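> tool_call: predict_assembly(chains=two)
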Amino acid sequence: MLLDTYLNQIVSGVLTGLVYGLSALGLSVIFGVCKIVNFAHGEMMVIGMYVALLLFRWLGLDPLVSIPLVALLLFGLGYALQAGVINRLIDVPDHMQFLLLAAVAIIIVSGCLMVFGPDAQNVPLDYAYDSYALGPLLVDKVRVLAGAAAIAVALLLGAFFRWTRTGKSIRACADNLMGARVIGLDVRRLFALSFGLGAACIGAAGCILLTLVDVHPYLATEYTLLAFVIVIVGGLGSLAGALLAGVLIGVSEAVAGLLIDPSLKSMFSFGLLILVLLFRPQGLMGRRAG
Amino acid sequence: MKASWLAEVSPRGRWLLAALLVVLLAAPLLVDDYVLSVLILVLYFAYLGQAWNIMMGFAGQLSLGHALYFGLGAYASAALYAKYGISPWLGMAAGAALAAVAGAFIGALGFRFRIGGVYFAVLTIAFAEFTRILFDHFDWVGGTAGFFLPVSNRTGNDLVMLRGAPVMFYYVWLAGAAGVLVLCRGLLSSRLGYYWLAIREDEVAAEALGIDTFRYKILAVMLSAALTACGGVVYAFYYNNLFPEPVFSIGRSIDMLLGAVTGGVGTMMGPIVGAFILTPLAEALTVALSPLQEVMRLDGLKEVFYGLCVVLIVVFQRHGVWPYLSRKLGLGTEAKP
């Protein structure tokens, strides 16, 4: 009986972790390519969640169906932000970059507060309480779909980076910026594209997350930190690493909830982060800093 | 061009500073309670900004988890006072020591393992968040339910126990903000200060000269942590209540450094200038928007404008406002790097 509980929790953790991993992917793309630490990460995700919420309310669209729309919207937002504001500040010191994005985060949170109010809102889906029974496992349908959607988006992104010309150009920028410039790549445009892509990823993750949790303006901070933990544990610049670390964190949170107090589950994640930073700073699957 | 700690305040600037000090000393006699509370906030941020700036300016490491030291100081002194009746000044010593140890630990971890930049910043966030959650479950000091200091009706101001009217706290903060400035000025002229400057400008060269960079960076972190903790103590005794969430949160860490970064990291006057700009800006926005708030409930509008202002400041003054002001108004002399 106890084993069943653990198994169920672990499966649930894996599926949720895939969604976390997707959001971390977005952060990883932005940092890996543009070398910008997006402290407005969680806030962008919340925008995605709210847009998906609106689409559900006005058009009855399931958040998972809204993914392409929301991703597109956030792509535009990210592109505009990078091209318009951040590009001017390409070589400012870390703390100024941080301040800029922290300010953007404040603007977003307060904007959401103004428009949507402070209450938690959610998407009442018809299949919210359905579950699949697989032997001893009882898995929520919502989580299965969420996990599947996360994998799908991640695969799409991976395919883009692997097989399209633009994707390879972006990877070139990440690997060797000077070299990319030398061979004539339009770095500014690629930076903006990457930021947009990362934002789109984050938006998609937000859509998916909306099926799992309620949205309110202050959700952002928690998810920004979570994404950072995942990206660092997984290794910057590694897409697979981000997903893997996401799953790891998802499972550890789920198990921690069982073993100890659920409210202590974040301590687990932070503890893991500290350990990784000390003993394997490049992350589980990251390449050595270069 | 990097603004450096050597940006001495010019004679004109010194006169201005002295005038400001006189005004601030006399302020409680001239202004009403509301303005006084705003001034207390300004001085509070000026103090904390300078304390944070020591780590950034000297050790050159971005810390986004300074709320950790703040909270340790606050809780340590509050607990000692409420449970054992110990004076907050002794509690301050205990809190500062505790924070210094924590800072040394984090700094040692970071520097020993050569974690820099963003990674170190995230490490500091992780430690602060870790401690926040820890204190959520630390029932001896209230946990999530909060910790409260006993408040009694006093007719006078008790400086020993830090019980008293806002005016008393005003002067404590003023003394603190001014004191830290003097301390930094004094330190910079010392041998230690020159070691720090060398490390900041070129760590490899400093090591080549035989300076134990590890030790002096740790020292900077410890000093910064200890001073921040002292700020936490006064905060605890001013507000008389502590909750892990607002005290240890990343929001508080960010608040602490906003002024310093806006004014100019690594400069002496930067944090002070930043505090004097941002806090009144926030209050002015609140006042300016209040007629609008009467008409429609728009929570968050002020923060939107505030955020926009900060974005504008970053875009147009990427090195901070103080270096710009010091050039334009002739308040500083620039030592060309």
